[in-house]
Design brief:
heterodimer, A: 245 residues, 10 helices, B: 255 residues, alpha/beta, Rossmann fold, four-stranded antiparallel sheet
Chain lengths: 245, 255
Amino acid sequence: MNYLASIGSYSMMVVEVFKKPTKWRIMKSLILKEVDELVYGSLGIIIFISFFIGAVVAIQTALNLTNPIIPRSLIGFATRQSVILEFAPTFVSIIMAGKVGSYITSSIGTMRVTEQIDALEVMGVNSLNYLVFPKIIAMLFYPFAIAISMYVGIFGGWLAGVFGGFLTSADFVSGLQTDFVPFHIAYAFIKTLIFAFIIATIPSFHGFYMKGGALEVGKASTTSFVWTSVVIIILNYILTQLLLG
Amino acid sequence: MIEVNNIHKSFGDTHVLKGITTTFEKGKTNLIIGQSGSGKTVFLKCLLGLFAPEEGSIVYDGKVYSDLKEDEKRNLRQEMGMVFQGSALFDSMTVAGNVKFPLDMFTKQSQSEMEDRVNTVLDRVNLVDAHNKFPAEISGGMQKRVAIARAIVMNPKYLFCDEPNSGLDPKTAILIDDLIKEITEEYNITTIINTHDMNSVMQIGEKILFLKDGLKEWEGTKNEIFKTENEAVTNFVYSSDLFKKVRQMYIEERN
């Protein structure tokens, strides 16, 4: 029953976010600030992780290719498929659920604890629109970060594969071009956009409706990370079945 | 003027407000006192429209809050100023940014008009050199003054203060009390203060409402509180030795 009540509250929150919009002049600066905090501020960790995961995928594939009949270009093919289909959109989103999600929950939760949200409400401001809407719009830029993740991941795979002596650059590029399905890119970005919405709203929900003090802010951040990850993983399965199944 | 008619508020099985009826007059500092758990904060949040009472009505200068449409409620809230216990200043904004916020949100004033108004209210609360500081960089007393400046920047009809003196030294607490009283008279607003501070009661309590277990136990002025024979009030107000002596002296003087 608690889960159902939470889903109901979450749905009502999402509806409320789009009501009584804040003045565009103010909203514009809030959106730019959130793009900087949520997306631009995450590029470093996304690039770092993507590079090494791409490299590891290439090495693992190379080490498991023991059959001489299988062409070495499969390393490039496997790296591309892993990075584009799953690693960049899903794995990075789970990392973002931790980094961005905990930031969102703790910042909104702290505002709740220190009565800043009550202050907004008393003034007649739609606090959900003021706090959550800019985050949702900022996360529309998240696919750009994922595009960079895809590029860097594949680059990491190429670097590890070629300079690790597992295959030639030509083999890797050939593998990258083998059986390329453009829709896979669309599939990855559709997933990314949906995950972006989840990353912006579920942590906001946990921060906005939290009760208690500083300790509960920490607990809410942990809970929000767990639930954001769970929802991303379940949606990943459903979207994969719907779009590729 | 705010008229409260028989309001009830419960949370689950806990009946917090059990039928409070009272009136808060314009241009006066109205104080709500009572022990922790007596329902003061819930009562104040009902007055602010943050909690909806299950029964009864709250009337703001003839407007029954529960009868208003959502937009009308938001408009009414723009006529309210609130000073929170912890000041509730926005951490990410400077002092000037905090005070300018309601003007930015709800008026069509130009930047220079807004800056003029911000300077006026910050001068009024005696904050002159703190415009560009962040809340974390100023003292608790200064934060309270910024909160008061933010609350009055829109020329509110109603000013609500939740424990405005908590965490302040006695001297600063008196300054804040005096400031609230002066602003109430100057702007002719209805001010309601939720407090535990007996100095405030004695100093600025033009009307005092004493709550006990969710009910109005007593109401009167700061002069009447000296004379009252209500045991719950005297036990609460004169719980400290200092105030017991003050009362004793008052009674002896009267006799």
